[in-house]
Design goal:
Shape: elongated
Helix content: 55-70%
Structural class: mainly alpha
Number of helices: 2
Mean pLDDT: 77
Order of helices and strands: HH
Strand content: under 5%
Number of strands: 0
Low-confidence stretches: none
Length: 57
């Protein structure tokens, strides 16, 4: 039973650190790109435009 608590605690700590470091790295990357942290990339709008759509048939 003790091993289960130790393993569960280590697993929770590992997942928490992984999420925290991932969010920190994403925030630093967004600051390098001079964009806000939680704003979608405006380049996505350039990929698909309404002019690309044509009726089928």
């Amino acid at each position: 039973m003790d091993y289960l608590l130790i393993f569960g605690g280590l697993l929770i700590a590992f997942i928490t650190l992984r999420v925290w470091f991932g969010a920190r790295r994403a925030k630093i990357y967004a600051e390098i790109k001079k964009q806000k942290y939680n704003v979608m990339d405006p380049a996505l709008e350039k990929i698909t435009t309404n002019n690309d759509r044509e009726p089928i048939g």
